[in-house]
Amino acid sequence: MSESTDTKTIYLFGQPIAHSVSPFFYNTIFTKLSLPWRYIRLDSHDPEDLMWMMRRDDFMGAAVTMPNKVRAMACVDVLTEEARRIGCINTIYVQSGHGGDGERVLVGTNTDWIGIQRALLRAQPKLKEGDWSAMVIGGGATCKSAIYALAEGLVARTIYLVSRDAGEAQSAIDDLKQRGLQRDICHIDTVEDVTSLSLSETPIVTVSAVPDIAPKTEPEQRARDIAIVMLQRKPGCQFPRIFLEMCYDPRPRTWLAGVAGEADWQIIDGLDVMEHQAIEQDVLWMGRSLSELPVNDAGKAIRDALHRH
């Protein structure tokens, strides 16, 4: 990918995204490297809005967030193997076409799973080995990335999915298995399902991907009760249990992360995931190596932005 003096634009495509601090990360990278690039919000749930921007000469890519991670797949020319197997994308980047005609190819991929895997391994390298189970709380596209990270990026034996919507949970499980995932994934639907598990089957890793909102419906309360009971079980593992909170606002902790902390889980901040996956996005967009990117400055920028908020 050649550098140009012309302004290049990368979009954050999702809705609502006014609260997102990710522009502070990417624009710090571009500023530190003296690049005339910009990362701007495209607050929309309509893929046509993104496709319109894709036609612009300055389009260099997009970060895709909710609720667009599945629907944006139809906007690209090619999907990477990871995107195909997970069934959603969070990144679009531009490749030069093959054949020398200069035609641009829009590639959709998923770096969420890389961010989750690297954040977990940074906290506990022993997750590369052993025989352990995990829990994922939620049911959307991010949860599918989490399941893929736990099953393919790591070595989770069994993954329990806790969701307020049993149909959505089963649909996610079925879709991942149709796409080739071989691990044992099961939806936990009642507290009794939890208490019937042996201690050896109890999760030692949890990824929570739900908003920090108090339950308002019976299914939401049931899902929270299941998560609480699971978090309070003591499997007697050889290293600290890890709770990865994908929701990094409010700070310092969400309510569920507070429950996990009281039960002696090690809490990992969702910003760690964001930074790891964002670095991978920058490598794809810019064609630069990790060692060339001022990631420490960018990480400080988003933490300062959250502190101001």
UniProtKB/TrEMBL annotation:
Pfam families: Shikimate_dh_N. GO terms for biological process: chorismate biosynthetic process; shikimate metabolic process. One of its GO terms (molecular function) is shikimate 3-dehydrogenase (NADP+) activity. Signal peptide: none annotated. Residues 12-92 form the Shikimate dehydrogenase substrate binding N-terminal domain. PANTHER family: BIFUNCTIONAL 3-DEHYDROQUINATE DEHYDRATASE_SHIKIMATE DEHYDROGENASE, CHLOROPLASTIC, SHIKIMATE DEHYDROGENASE. This is Shikimate dehydrogenase substrate binding N-terminal domain-containing protein.
